[in-house]
């Protein structure tokens, strides 16, 4: 049983124990009055354990297979006029919405929305510019019509730009950035420590500016340890480590830190702009969210992460999410003081610590892997890994991250506005959204060092930090634990946050907002120049780096809880996390579930109390909508994966071979076995057609042609191998077929292409081998020209067509005509021979087994066979001669240089063969390969097919007792593996017309119609 199933079994056992406690033990300890409530401390755990058990069983039973990526949806650009009409309609709707929103949300916010959404409808996609222009325009107009707000802004400007407050901004940012780099002391801890300092200052504006600078400075700096050593400093930077650390390991730590700094600055700045514009309006919107909506919003976040963090298996990611949620229930409940699942251990009364779990999930396994794999500590730049040679990002990378920063700054800000959501949820949702909407190729880069994967969470969490000040300043409601501490500091300073703050003390309100602009600028100026020095940690030798990481991890866990038991938990969880990584379980969902678990249970419990049960799900439309979205986020990737898997389970299910009625493909009658030829299953046919389906149709018959057109409508690709003009005479050429299927990819393979003087010449492989010049260089001066020993022109033509079709399938919009010339395909594979003639004037010659580009390089006589040697480099020449005991050859002038050896290659070959002939070729090959000289015995086809190298990779496929053949047949596969697995070919080569009934009935024909068509000669 695979490791992932063993772990699923272990989790299942844990779930059973957890469920027993939830269903039987906990309720027995409760007073009778609590048992009559629909919401007691075991309600939430009971729901969790059912889902976790089902997911564990799903993995144990292998109900979900690892899928390939499904194709992206087509984009239809042909209906431009209707699109313009749609724009006009949307703008009219926007005008009506503006009129309706003007009074509820205020002039400033409504104007900003109108300008930005209007620009978006009209095609503007530069989000940063769009937001900036809309904010400036709305703000300018708003302040011109609101003299009181303008006066408050001016008072805030004068307050913020005093020398004292500027120093507070700088000091707060420096302290926050440093603390953010250190796991264990998060922004909450340091702000709590700084409150006495803030109270001592006396001035509320200066004190709040200092504390705010510490807050967003800590979030800004938290990305550093996430990127460099995979140890997130604060919860909101966990998502940054998903791509930041892999990019740093590639030797691009400077780029990762630069992207993080730019994204953090941009997110914070955009958030400050939005705070200025939207603060009054969003305060009232935030009040519309009740506990049920917060619960549903967090379910959406967990679903998104689970669906897109898993490596191809949603069940594993969901199971880890449930495991994290279950771990979050250990200790005292959110709404109840009764301890849960502590097993009598006093140190677990307060639950597991976040820092302990974060260190165990990321930093400790990384240290273990560094020990197990010493090369892992080396980044892509080798010995220069600690030198940051280039902090710049390319123009293409800047183009990629700009819309990401715009989108996630907006999304992060609005999530931050919601009390209880905060920067952590914003960062995870930002990462999940960007991964989901990325192209298929970009999705594969996420988790491996994608700049988008760094920009998304960094811009989202910094914008969310700014957004969290909206409920704090305008409603007096803290949006997170950190802003709750800030609320306490405000009250201690005799400042009453709420709706009257903007009116009664505008200098404080606006000074804080303006300081955020200054703070983000200060953070960027401070951090960018420090990147080369910060990234020096990557140059630390592993024998120092690993102990440092381990100490850093232990201290982070100890400082976080000030409890030695946390260190034991750290080690235990770290070992489990390492096993999970070996079994390819994603760890991020577990940590995210643990972080969001208390908030999720809190809001779930409150909603249950308010609605006396689960009725809040359908009684609150917004809650129901969010939960439906969560289900879609989990189900849709599985649906897309299933479609992709059905498409990718070998070419078998996807290729239909259309053959002429009665006779079929000529290859059916070609081959060395007359019996198979008589049965229409010649060995030439067997070589290329495993897994395909065969139908017959008479294209010269009108009804046959109509059937063919019907079949084409269901196809993505059509490949034909007729002489140019044949398909047009039959009435089924590309111009005809694209009317039936505009997205069709039509590939025509012919001897000489679709135009040119030789266009109408007939061509088989033999003809192309002669015409291409390949025969003229095959053999030696005495035997050439010789035919290559297999149909190389047919094979190369087919491979060229496959490359072209793959490119066309990824093009947008779909639909193209591909012209493949077998002559040019073969010439293209002779690139270095052709280039020698075109660019060096050297006429290609037949050199037999000699490699004319180097010497000694070619086939040499050994005992019992030929031995190939390719000593193409000078160091290989030295190794070869020393091993053969012929070091003296290097002293001879005729062999002194590479060019000397090439000119005297035949004499040198004779010298080497005097020694090589004394032993078998296979013995020499083993020894020479071991010392670094590429060598190999010259094998026959039967010999290589019997080699373990071929058998162990599953290159050969045997079909037993094939119908119509009466015996076993063996075929070769593609030699390709995708993510370690070869494409499956489940069916043997088909008999002529074997799938007529299956294919034609799927297209709607009845048995009677098929019989009639066969009688008419159409099939």
TrEMBL record:
Keyword Transmembrane helix: yes
Molecular function GO labels: catalytic activity
Alphabetized UniProt keyword annotations: Membrane, Transmembrane, Transmembrane helix
Name of the molecule in the record: Uncharacterized protein
UniProt lineage: Eukaryota, Sar, Alveolata, Dinophyceae, Suessiales
Ranges of residues in domain DUF112: 166-591
Pfam family membership, one: CoA_transf_3
Family annotation (PANTHER family): TRICARBOXYLIC TRANSPORT PROTEIN (PTHR35342)
Membrane-spanning parts: 45-63, 127-145, 157-179, 191-215, 227-245, 257-282, 294-310, 317-338, 350-372, 413-433, 477-496, 508-531, 543-560, 567-600, 620-639
Record-stated family: Belongs to the CoA-transferase III family.
